[in-house]
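User: Structure with S-adenosylmethionine, tokens only please.
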Amino acid sequence: MTDATTTIDTALASIKASPKALQVLRDLHQQALAEPAFVSTAQPITSAIDKFVALDPDKCALVYLLLRSSGARFVVEAGTSFGVSTIYLALAVGQNAAAASGAAAALGDSSSSGKVIATENEPTKSAKALTHWRTIGDEVEPWIDLREGDLRETLQSDLPAQIDFVLLDIWTPLALPALSRVHRNLRVGAMVVVDNFVLAAKGYTELQAFLDDPANGFKVTTAPYEGGLLIAVYLGH
Ligand SMILES: C[S@@+](CC[C@H](N)C(=O)[O-])C[C@H]1O[C@@H](n2cnc3c(N)ncnc32)[C@H](O)[C@@H]1O
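Assistant:
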């Protein structure tokens, strides 16, 4: 087995999903890992227009397990690209919603729901993401609300009253604008995960200052995944 295949299979072993969903993820990760590495602060952003720039498989597995362990049902993802990380988010949200609806039904309540708000401003990318989600079908599609356009507009309104989880896998100048738009809707205990927080530290100075300001209610740690994966928890005021 190649290194990439081992990395992917190890990550997929952490996921509860149908054989079809696992195969789609396996294929997409293979294609994504075959691309040259891309860091948004180091290269012209236009050079990534036809690239996955997908979250690494081990980080996707961590994100899925964080969502499952916290029971997250309302999630925001900035950005989506070809929809790889979104698949993990939607699997977890769908499974958490099913678990919550089982528990609620036992108490006579039939109102459990969930949603991944995904954002992508490059139409060719969002079209591909939709195709990938359609291939998997009901396991992920009903849980995704894809907002096409600039996240500074698409995340401006119509957000869940309480957001449980935010994935910031976006060009660094967009990270703080994305977080600012969802900040007031974060529930206490919500997690915010940011990719490449160490590798792209120069691009994240404003986000770091925002997270470090006690007035904004976060505590943070950086997990030693490749490039550094920031995990911030919103503890409120
Ligand atoms: C690192 S990629 C996301 C990868 C994705 N999370 C995955 O794992 O497959 C970042 C994406 O953000 C998109 N993007 C850049 N600026 C944006 C903006 N202003 N609004 C929405 N999306 C944007 C880019 O087109 C790119 O596809």
